[in-house]
Design goal:
mainly alpha, 15 helices, about 5% strand
Length: about 325
């Protein structure tokens, strides 16, 4: 292309696909000064201006503002510096868009009212310090005035929601649900009641930290309940009653009769208390937020174990 070739704005528009109005705007802003003008005052541009216009369009498509485009063209800044600043800005924009998407997804799932949308939006934007404080305040209230096992509750409250800098949509949605859960009055009352019963057990000298063997037993009982459920066995079947007997025997401390209906009733209360789906959901949401391995639901298995104990002989309510 000869260096002396010049183009009108209309010809630049046809060659680049940019609207005449946009090219004229760039020219007026000083990003595309005309090479020369006709006797009638019309602007003309040479091949260098065409290349410059393509560069302006590329920078604008990358989201770079006009002032920075002007600085880049004037060599007042480097493309590396421009790219660095705009990557940071885009990262922040993407983070905010993900927050909005998480809130809107939660709105769709729950068919939320206006007031709830405002609350969810505020929750999604909480900084890390406020998230951790929310959990600390929750557990403070759960044990306030109670003499509980310190080691146990230290473990409970040590698990904090820790969203990564670039959370996945499901992590943001889990955080919104988690924050709503720990602020729900019914859930707070549930955990407070559990803490109160725990404190009574401590006061009576009956509380013991679960041993590794007891935990392994528990996992094995859950697995047996799953096997029985898959096989279509009922809780009052021979398999269900045998499982209930093994649980009672392994749970009885010295001096306790595993066949005593009163003992089995208390054991049933303990299992039923831990079977509330909201308690399980608390830890499932934390796992999602923090990127831990997923925690599968054991609600069916717990209901089977409770029903098996009930069928094996407990005191009537």
């Amino acid at each position: 292309m000869p260096a002396t070739t010049v183009f009108t704005i209309g010809e630049l528009s046809r060659r680049t696909g940019l609207p005449v109005k946009t090219i004229r705007f760039y020219s007026d802003e000083g990003l595309l000064p005309p090479t020369q003008r006709t006797n009638a005052g019309y602007r003309l541009y040479d091949a260098h201006a065409l290349v410059r216009l393509e560069l302006v369009r590329t920078l604008r498509e990358l989201g770079i503002g006009l002032p920075d485009v002007s600085r880049a063209l004037a060599r007042e800044t480097t493309m590396r510096d421009l790219a660095t600043s705009h990557v940071d800005a885009l990262d922040e924009q993407i983070r905010r868009l993900r927050l909005r998407r998480a809130v809107l997804r939660a709105v769709l799932k729950r068919d939320s009212e206006l007031e709830e949308v405002e609350l969810m939006n505020r929750i999604a934007r909480m900084p890390d310090e406020e998230r951790r404080r929310l959990v600390d305040e929750f557990w403070d209230e759960m044990v306030d005035g109670l003499d509980v096992d310190t080691e146990f509750y230290t473990r409970m409250r040590s698990a904090k929601p820790d969203l990564p800098d670039d959370p996945a949509p499901e992590q943001l949605e889990a955080w919104i649900e988690f924050a709503e859960l720990v602020q729900d009055p019914d859930f707070r009352q549930l955990i407070r009641d559990m803490s109160t019963r725990h404190a009574r057990t401590v006061a009576a000298g009956e509380y013991e930290q679960p041993t590794k063997a007891q935990q392994e037993h528990w996992f094995a009982w859950i697995a047996e309940a799953r096997t029985a459920l898959d096989a279509g066995a009922a809780p009052d079947s021979p398999a269900g009653r045998a499982l209930a007997d093994r649980i009672a025997t392994a749970s009885a401390r010295p001096g306790q009769d595993p066949d005593d209906p009163a003992f089995r009733t208390k054991l049933l209360e303990t299992i039923s208390e831990g079977a509330d789906p909201r308690s399980e959901r608390y830890w499932q949401l934390l796992a999602t937020i923090n990127g831990w391995p997923p925690i599968p639901s054991t609600q069916e298995e717990l209901r089977f174990l409770a029903a098996a104990l009930r069928a094996s002989g407990v005191n009537p309510a």
